[in-house]
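Sequence in, structure out.
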Amino acid sequence: MHTKIFRILPRLCLLLVLTLLPTLSVFAQDDNTQVRITQVDNSKFPNVTVYVSVTNTAGEPVGIDPATIQISENGQTMQPVDVRGGGEGGEGQAEPFTTMLVMDISGSMDKNDKFTAAKEAAKAYISQMRPGDQAGLITFDTQVHYVQPITSDINALLDAVDKLKTGSDTAMFNALIEAEKALEAASGRKAIIALTDGMDNQSQSTADDVIAGISQGGLTVSTIGFGDASTASQAGLDEAALKSLAEKSGGLYSYAADSESLSALYQQYGRTLQSEYAITYVSPSTLRDGVNRTLNVTVSNLGATTESQYNPGGVLPEVSSNSLVLFGSILAVLLLLLVVPGLVSRGVGMFSGTKKKGRIKLSSPPSVSSKKTNIKIK
């Protein structure tokens, strides 16, 4: 009996290890890979385009086979009708995107040559734009300044950055609201990259207003906190708000302590946008019913997964053509039921009125005998 146990025990241990090994591997790979749904474009609904970013823990893009990306809507696996994007099998094929650069020009940016570093970093970002990419420039101090409307003209953008000058206090949330408005008309992938070195102390808008202004899945807000190079201090930054803005919109947050790290962050953000995968599928629920749909994206060979939601829109539920015919028929019957009693009542009234006109009532003439009775003869 004991001999059998000793023979079986090693086999059980080996089986247990082989069973757990794939699971352990999945968790290790999941820890090193981040998958994010950065935007959901339903402007051509029921065609839905999901933008997916796959990066390592350092924020650098990870090249994968697009066929390993699986999307499900409300738990139902979707079959892609179009896949575009960077990485293995799709490098250089990512569709053009639009970026709104939002830069802090408050007085504090003048210290320790931070403003010069910020301008150089923005110019480095602009210089790596590909044909078809677009960008605009909004700056903020006490006021919001729409310096350069969205354009694909790299020279115009570089010139706009070169002409920037610093001002006074910080109104970042107001500037982000304006950036959202400026991007409303832009199609395809769109993103905001915001840089600040301090806390917002002048905005009428709040961080919650900025999030509310983003249609669900409509764009991302990535933020960069730029510290004081002389003290390497982050005390003046509202990092909680910057992180919250980035996380809730599918963007990134990073802190830069000097000009070198700032420039590297801008370029990394650009590479991340350029490497995203755009996957289009047809939603099985084809009506704009105003109901949120849950999206799950999994990279099967990495075990990395993420979840988000999108709303197809529609204040009133849409109906199919067959439903419209049925609805019209029901409406016609209801209207008929409302009208018929009135018509019947009117017909009865007309009929009754005709009969009344046909009756002639004759009054009796005064009695002759009564008149004679009243005559007196003298």
